[in-house]
Amino acid sequence: MPRPDITWTPPPGTSTDQPRQVRRILGLFRPYRGRLAIVGLLVGASSLVGVATPFLLREILDVAIPQGRTGLLSLLALGMILSAVVTSVFGVLQTLISTTVGQRVMHDLRTQVYGRLQRMSLAFFTRTRTGEVQSRIANDIGGMQATVTSTATSLVSNVTSVVATVIAMIALDWRLTVASLLLLPVFVWISRRVGRERKKIATQRQKQMAVMAATVTESLSVSGILLGRTMGRADSLTQSFAKESESLVDLEVRSNMAGRWRMAVISVVMAAMPAFIYWVAGIALQVGGPSISLGTLVAFVSLQQGLFRPTVSLLATGVQIQTSLALFQRIFEYLDLPIDITERENPVHLDKVEGEIRFEKVAFAYDDKSGPILRDIDLTIPAGGSLAVVGPTGSGKSTLSHLVPRLYDVTGGRVTLDGTDVRELDFDTLARAVGVVSQETYLFHASVAENLRFAKPDATDEELYAAAGAAQIHEHIVSLPDGYDTVVGERGHRFSGGEKQRLAIARTILRDPPVLILDEATSALDNRTERAVQEAIDALSANRTTLTIAHRLSTIRGADQIVVLDSGRTVERGTHEELLALGGRYAALVNRDAQLEPTG
């Protein structure tokens, strides 16, 4: 299977400059300023307590032991123990608070991305692979977990430790301090180069993970397995996945090894610094320079070792932040996606919907590059009336039905519900008013009852039974071993096409919308199943405004009005009898169906 191209192009207006990204990342932590302030206090206190230990050690070596002052020795030793205890307690507390804050930030990010995607128009999902969306939420946000949960605390802790340690080192001996810090700018420069290198590789790695996620989502779904098995492509799909996985292996190795030798050199140099300090002190003593006491020298080396640990950690954190910026950029791209379908600032709310639908000079095109799908459509469906739309494939029938619940917005003219432009209505009114039953029924991998209650979470069992009875599926459900607790399986594959359609109809009956859209709801069914489903549809359509997109004309003969679309225009309209008498396109479609009927 050829590798699909799912390279994401940031939408216009998405900024990828690093300062703006850093400001946005810091903004994620703004709601938790209080907790972070506590973490800062704990970090500062821990750093101050930590740098006190070398001074206690100096006093032990230079005063308490040489002078034989046992009481002072015991007090200083106890101080060193208490310092370790306090530092450990503060460390546990700061880890608890910072981890909690980090996980809350992760939760906020996941929720923001999911909420943003819920508001995207249908067009976005028709051009974006499901695996790509899942990868952004799972892999990209998951990959930032270590950075979000620990980096901020590590950064504050290490900066505080470095500052406190440097001050303490200067207090001990400023000359040794200068000698210790000579190579620090070089280390910083090396770590920045490593960070940029890893950031570039991280971007490639996340794109590759998105490719793999999309491949897994599509090929290991029930439909994908059926297609692969029946087409004899299981081995080919496995080989394709192996190639994608092999590419990911290479990127993972490159990511982990990027700058590894350079960072190793830094670690070796830092580990060798104590020997350098001892050498400097020894040379200074031999050439007649200022003498340094043994306690000061040992305390200084101890501080120096305490400096190197947070310094190396800071350099590593800088590299990690550079890598994480690539992940944040991918998340911010989704958060910056323009939302095509939005609710007006002061939308209209209808407490009671009668159900009159009007299409007034409606035009629609998916984008500026493609031609118009619908042109100059004028239709009216009275409240409680029925309108059927027929026409050849690609004539714009389904697109027309999508305009009523605002799955798309018109590009010209307007669609009204009870005289109000649907773009002026709030989403709650539209969701309550318009029910859709389409050819492709979607069921969650949950029980029958849970799938039905998706339409009405507070529905009683009696309401479920009544809705299922009206949809002529109740008897079948209760005949199952687990009844309404039966799990329908992935996308409802444990049920036949007709059974899934009747479950979808029962779900819509439970919601009880005044406006009903039937988008070729029976076109994929055999004649016997179609008749059973049609009876359920008739029960559902009673006393509702109904817009039917029809493939089989036998299902729409009783419609109040029938419209024939061709190339996005209305070419015929009337009742079944009127259009037959006209002898035009509708009559030709009916004759075609009549010829196909004997063969099924």
Automatic annotation (TrEMBL):
CDD domains: ABC_6TM_exporter_like
Keyword Transferase: no
Pfam family, one: ABC_tran
Stretches assigned to the ABC transmembrane type-1 domain: 37-323
ABC transporter domain: residues covered: 357-592
Highest taxon listed in the record's lineage: Bacteria
Transmembrane feature ranges: 36-58, 70-97, 162-190, 264-287
Record localization: Cell membrane
Main location: membrane
One example GO MF annotation: ATP binding
UniProt keywords, alphabetically: ATP-binding, Membrane, Nucleotide-binding, Transmembrane, Transmembrane helix
Keyword Isomerase assigned: no
Membrane topology qualifier: Multi-pass membrane protein
Gene3D superfamilies for the chain: ABC transporter type 1, transmembrane domain, P-loop containing nucleotide triphosphate hydrolases
Protein name: ABC transporter ATP-binding protein/permease
Organism the protein comes from: Streptomyces griseoaurantiacus
